[in-house]
Amino acid sequence: MSRSVLVTGGNRGIGLAVARAFAEAGDRVALTYRTGGPPEAAARLGCLGVGCDVTDAAQVERAFKEVEAAHGPVEVLVANAGITRDRLLLRMSEKDFTEVLDTNLTGVYRVVRAAAGEMVQARRGRIVLISSVTGLLGAAGQANYAASKAALVGFARSVARELGSRGITCNVVAPGFVETDMTGALTGRQRDAVLGRVPLARGAQPGEVAAAVRFLASADAAYITGAVLPVDGGLGMGH
Fold this sequence. Notes:
alpha/beta
């Protein structure tokens, strides 16, 4: 059955792969982007591109109205939008810290809250939050990013407890090293340092993360909520 799906930060990388996976399954997919016009990939996939900065509550409200007008109330929400401001702690400004948390954590609160009302009325819904293995392991120079991604676990489990009786699940996917434009900018030495810690000795393809997201949004995962699903090649095992 075709569902109304919204993927935040869906214009590239993991978010775009997730949007593609749902679109290919026949769902009505909208994806958000922060700057510029709708990404060309959205049109190619038959997705609705919606401008939205998740740090702006008014933009979030407008985005949901636009999606609902085109596709109906959001039935599957994938909260993927995120940023980094990497600095060692002693060089990290308060702005570096708060901007990352406002996007990666408070931004998730804004979109989940916006989706939850209609889901509660419908007595069904799927919420998937994109965290990171960094939120479980920590990483030098990423205290802000790691804090924001770790917090998603507590947030998701609280939402799962609040909304579970209404047929709504809330789960977390925690990717490891994923082959995207961001990781493609790393030097060979940096790549080797990361991949040397991965038992499977390679990075993930964005589509592999998207497959995990689609599973958690599927009927097969109807009895899974409050879970953290790692897609990290074993990098974070035991955490």
